[in-house]
Design a protein that fits this description.
Blueprint: H1 6-28, E1 34-35, H2 36-43, H3 52-64, E2 68-71, E3 83-86, H4 88-95, H5 103-107
Antiparallel strand pairs: 1-3, 2-3
Helix pairs in contact: 1-3
């Protein structure tokens, strides 16, 4: 297996942190969804700083991979912030301790 690039390592680090935050929120209350600002705040205490744009890119990729879902907000909400929740495959991926070499098993994608 060849070493992964620093860009891939950074992407995986951000994705794992997001999934861990959303998994912890689910364990606390399965109906709770985490606002984007809450996810960004979860990165604040870290030694490495990530730009909000970097985190947004990884959130979009996690949604595309069906490991995270964006929760629609109620109509008429004056501040329609984005909220997120981990999916069942996302929780399975966390429980399996992030086996990146088998990610397709969790996303439903097939390598071709």
């Amino acid at each position: 297996m060849s070493p992964i690039s620093p860009e891939v390592e950074t992407s995986r680090t951000i994705r794992e942190a997001i999934l861990l935050m959303l998994d912890a929120a689910f364990k606390g209350d399965p109906e709770f969804d985490v606002p984007r600002d809450g996810i960004l705040a979860g990165f604040a205490p870290g030694r490495t700083r990530y730009a909000p744009g970097q985190i947004d890119v990884e959130l979009r990729d996690l949604i595309e991979d069906r490991l995270v879902e964006q929760v629609p907000r109620e109509p008429g909400n004056p501040l329609p912030d984005r909220h997120y929740r981990i999916t069942s495959p996302g929780r399975d991926f966390v429980r399996a301790k992030f086996p990146w070499h088998r990610i397709d098993e969790y996303t439903g994608r097939q390598r071709g």
